[in-house]
Write a structure and sequence with these properties.
With 72 residues, the chain is mainly α.
């Protein structure tokens, strides 16, 4: 539970530009200029597609799945 809390704090600090730029490079927000999607309105993160379990253990995948699971 503590790991989830610290990961959520890192994502929040990244959104507020309180962390170095290399953290901003790891996180990508949903973007689509044509359609008004719920993921854009909620400011969700893009979960990278992975073919192996190696990517599922990375910070990008884990942080995006935790951040997107937080209710409004």
């Amino acid at each position: 539970m503590r790991v989830i809390h610290h990961t959520a704090q890192l994502i929040f600090k990244t959104k507020c530009n309180c962390l170095p730029t290399y953290m901003h490079d790891l996180i990508f927000f949903s973007s689509n200029s044509v359609y008004g999607l719920r993921s854009i309105a909620r400011n969700d993160l893009n979960i990278p597609k992975s073919r192996t379990n190696y990517m599922k253990y990375s910070f990008q995948y884990y942080a995006a799945s935790i951040c997107n699971a937080i209710p409004e």
